[in-house]
Design goal:
The chain is built from 11 helices and 10 strands. It is α/β, with parallel strands linked by helices.
Amino acid sequence: MNTPLRFSLTSTCPMPVPAAPKVPAWQRPILKSVFPAIMILALFLLLNPPSPATGETKHLFRIGTGGTTGVYYPIGKLIAEGLTQPVEVKDTPSATVNGVPGIIGVAQNSAGSIENLRAVVSGQIEAGLVQADIAAWAFLAEHAFAGDQSGHTIRAVASLYPEIFQIVTRRDANIRSVPDLRGKRVSIDELGSGTLSVMRIVLAAYGLSESDFLPVYLKPAFTQDKIANNELQGFAMMAGAPMKAVTQLSDIGLFLVPIDSNTASGISARYPYLVPGKIPSGVYSDIPETKTLQVYALLVVSAETSEDLIYQVTAALWSERTLSLLKQGHPQGKWITPETALTGLSIPLHAGAERFYREKELLLKGTRSP
């Protein structure tokens, strides 16, 4: 709470106001997203006041996503819509799960996996989309989370789809391999993103570091004009394919920088949840098949969230309604299925999610490693 200004009758100077506490850099994007979330809740309650008969109160279920031109954000929005019970059916008994009673799903953009995970652990959001490798680091207190045991409370709801590491460059920049990045100006995503962590791993595998080129730390949404004007020669992103940030730039002529098989295998040996992958020919116009790395995108929550709530969230995620929203709403949505919900998991399931999969006899059909 801000300290009110107090004025003396004998002085025109206000009493000193205590300085606002400094906010850690990684928390600033989260705080910026709080106001829109509050406005969404206020508008919802204005249009849908609690029923006098039931006294039901709505609560936000915030899902940390990523930048607006990536895949986390549109997929997060569709999941949030699926978790929100439609107003027209909220009082209608049905055997089909249509959202979770009492919650409003909200997708919040963010820097990405690391920021989402820290926000879930600290209770600033209820769920987040996170790369499987980043989730494992946090759970085991390794790499970016070395010495931080708080990530041991992170739990999985589901594995969603494979994310592909994409180094996207202007074709005329003549960047045909990772070593060709030397001296180029390339965006490698924000601090707090999973992309940046993977980019550093890839650079190290090729004997490079950020000092070998001119790195910029921006989300793809903020690089498009710069790439079109040749102020930047490319950007990196760990995301599903196709990615809007790439398709919007296809007219200028693009090239995807490959990660050769030997290097990808070496990286996977050290970082088990980063595995060799590829972007098939035809995913992007005029771009051939490209070898790279991939990792699974997980929906994660805190172990401290109630078992009953996460059971309902898991059921709503895999309802026909949510699956239809995902399939129709984004090309990546077709890869999100109950049959692959346990593929590539790098952390334990939340008790509520595990109960759902056990009841549906899905635990025997999935695998917990890539």
